[in-house]
Structures are given as C-alpha cells and as structure tokens.
Amino acid sequence: MKLITDLSLTSARRNRGTWLAAYAVNGTKPVLVADYRGNVFGTTARSDFGSLHSFSRPSNAWGYDANGMLASFTADEPRLISSLNDGIRLGLLLEPGSQNKLPSPAMTGMATGALSSGGALPTGWSTLNIASSAVTVTDITPLSGLPRIRLQISGTPTSGDVYVFFSPRTEIVASAGQSWAASAFLALSGGSFSNVSNIRFYGIGWTASGGFVSGSTVNFNGTNLLTSITDNLERQSFIGSLSEAASERLQIGLRLDTSGSIDFTLDIALAQLEQGSIVSSPTPSSTARADETIGLSALNGTYDLRAETASGSVSTFLAQAVTPGYWPPALASGTLRSMIVYPAGTL
C-alpha cells in the first residue's frame, strides 16, 4: 500500500477546492484531517483545532512558540509547538502532569561577577570544593526564553570533585527508590575541559535535619556528559533514584571529576528536576502542570486512523470504534505531526 508522505500546509494549498485529496490513500480521501504541523484541520470543510477536538489542561504549560522562544501557554490552550531557536512547527505536544521541583525554576537571584565579590548564583544554588574567587558569573542573559547562567570556573579545586548544586540539602522532599528526572541545557562556551575526566548529574540523599546519608548516591550517579557537551546549548538529562532508606531529602546538581587546575566556561540553562521517570518540557516555573486530556469530537463510527509523530514514526489504528472523546491511549504523550482518519478498511 502506498501512503502519501506530504502532509504539509503547502501541499494542501496546491489542492484548493479538493484539499482532502492531498491526504488521500490509494484514492480514498480521509473523513478527518488534523495536521498539527501544517495547521490544516477539517472534515468535509476546513475548520480549526477546536472544531475537531475536545481538550483540557487546567493549568498553564510551557513550550516553544512560532518564534522558537520558550513561552507560556494558557490553561486549556493546546501546545502547537515549534522547535527551539528556528521556530519550525513540530506539532501537538501532549504530556502528563509534572512539576519542576527546584527551588528557583526561573533561576532568579543571579548577578554577574566573581562569587567572592558580588556575583551570585540562582537562589538555592551553590558550589563545593572550589574557591568562590575561582567562580565568576559572566553572563545571565536568557537564551531563546531560557533562563541561563554562564559560569567561568578557573582555578585549582580544593578536592578532586567539584560540584555545582541546583538545590540546597534539605528543601526537596524525597525517599529511597523514587525516580527523579534531572535535566539542564548545557554548553561549553569557553576554555576546555582539560583536567576534567567526568561531568554528570549527581543526586545526594540527606536526612530531614541535614545529615548526609552514606551510600545514597549509588543510583543517582549519572552518565559522563563530557562528549555530549559541545558549544551548542543542548538539553542533557538523567533519571536516577536515591538509595538507602534513611534518605529523606534530595540535593541535585552537576559533579565534575578533576585532577589539577581547570579553566572553562559553562552555560547552564533552565535546570529542572521532576519526580518520575519522564523528562518533560522545560518549565521555568514552580507551578505544577496538570494532566492534558484530549479526544476527537467530530466523529461517531468505525474508522482507521493514521498518526505521525514529530520524529516521523507512523502508527495505524484499524477499525476503531470512534465516539466523541476517543483518543488512542498509545498517543497520550509525545509530539504529533498529524492525525488522519479514514473510512474503515482503508489502511
């Protein structure tokens, strides 16, 4: 069977008056088109997202807008997102609820200068095993809507392990065995990682009163990011959990294994910590994002469905009993380019 591959708005414009034909499979036109990337919606006539879907999310949420900037989407507003920086439309983003648990998701409180003379890290952040005079905040300008700090670290560590913590010891309530997803945008913006053998996300367990829990880091010792960090700001992540039943609080940050003097400048943008095993959309707010509920509202009958994700993966759902509110459970999370519905037996 030959499936069409061009589901873009440009293709639909070439077929004005017969726009459904642009989405036909072996001559059979669809009964519903939801082209989230191409912004084409309709059944027998062109319409819009709201005419074809029921959608709710009782909270704001974040995503990249048409300008490639991180932006807030209001409650119940579907996130038809674009790519970071270039603003190329990707499609419809769907996610379960989540929350950035860091004390300063927007990275407030920063100031330029050496930490020893007026420079300041985001609220709740700290460094360890490096003199404050060796750490300089050189830039705090946001990038594409992402809060960002540029840290120059130049000197000889007082210990082989240097830490940049994103949270205090006792603020984030946690327990052994819970999954936590840590993420941040990172880039090497100056110098080199000479004398640095490992950079990774690192979680430490503490008691509620601030006592270190020995052995708590065994399952929160991230993979080495040295070869992943380039001069382009890219999101890095790790999913870990605390060990040891005594763990009651989680402190999260970056650990750098060093030997001798170091001199590099590191961009860190929108650090995030979420409870669970999913790294979700960057969120510079402590407000929890609610679950998103979606369904098709314009059909009632038995149909074949074809869905394409932002990565180009295609799923088909055959002979589905579609009633108002129907949505394939397999598509509850992720970014969709399109959802095209055909008469049963087409696919």
Explained architecture:
Strands 1, 2, 6, 7, 20, 21 and 22 form a seven-stranded antiparallel sheet that branches. The model is unreliable at 1-17 (pLDDT under 50). Strand 1 and strand 2 (40-42) form a beta hairpin. This protein has two helices and 22 strands. It is elongated and about 70 Å long. It has helices spanning 9-13, 49-52; strands at residues 32-35, 40-42, 53-56, 61-64, 70-73, 79-82, 89-94, 113-114, 126-128, 135-139, 148-155, 161-165, 172-173, 179-192, 196-206, 234-241, 249-258, 262-275, 293-296, 301-309, 314-322, 334-343. With 347 residues, it is an all-beta fold.
Summary of the model, kept short:
The chain is an all-beta fold and 347 residues long. It has helices at residues 9-13, 49-52, and strands at 32-35, 40-42, 53-56, 61-64, 70-73, 79-82, 89-94, 113-114, 126-128, 135-139, 148-155, 161-165, 172-173, 179-192, 196-206, 234-241, 249-258, 262-275, 293-296, 301-309, 314-322, 334-343.
Write the layout of secondary structure elements.
Blueprint lengths: L8 H5 L18 E4 L4 E3 L6 H4 E4 L4 E4 L5 E4 L5 E4 L6 E6 L18 E2 L11 E3 L6 E5 L8 E8 L5 E5 L6 E2 L5 E14 L3 E11 L27 E8 L7 E10 L3 E14 L17 E4 L4 E9 L4 E9 L11 E10 L4
The oligomeric status of these chains comes to single chain
Helix tally?
A: 2
Radius of gyration: 24 Å
Low-confidence stretches: 1-17
| Major beta-sheet overview | 7 strands, antiparallel
Strand elements, count: 22
Q: What value does the average pLDDT take? A: 93
Distance between the terminal alpha carbons, to the nearest Å? 8 Å
* Helix content estimate: under 10%
Overall outline: elongated
SS-based class: mainly beta
SSE string: HEEHEEEEEEEEEEEEEEEEEEEE
Strand content: 35-45%
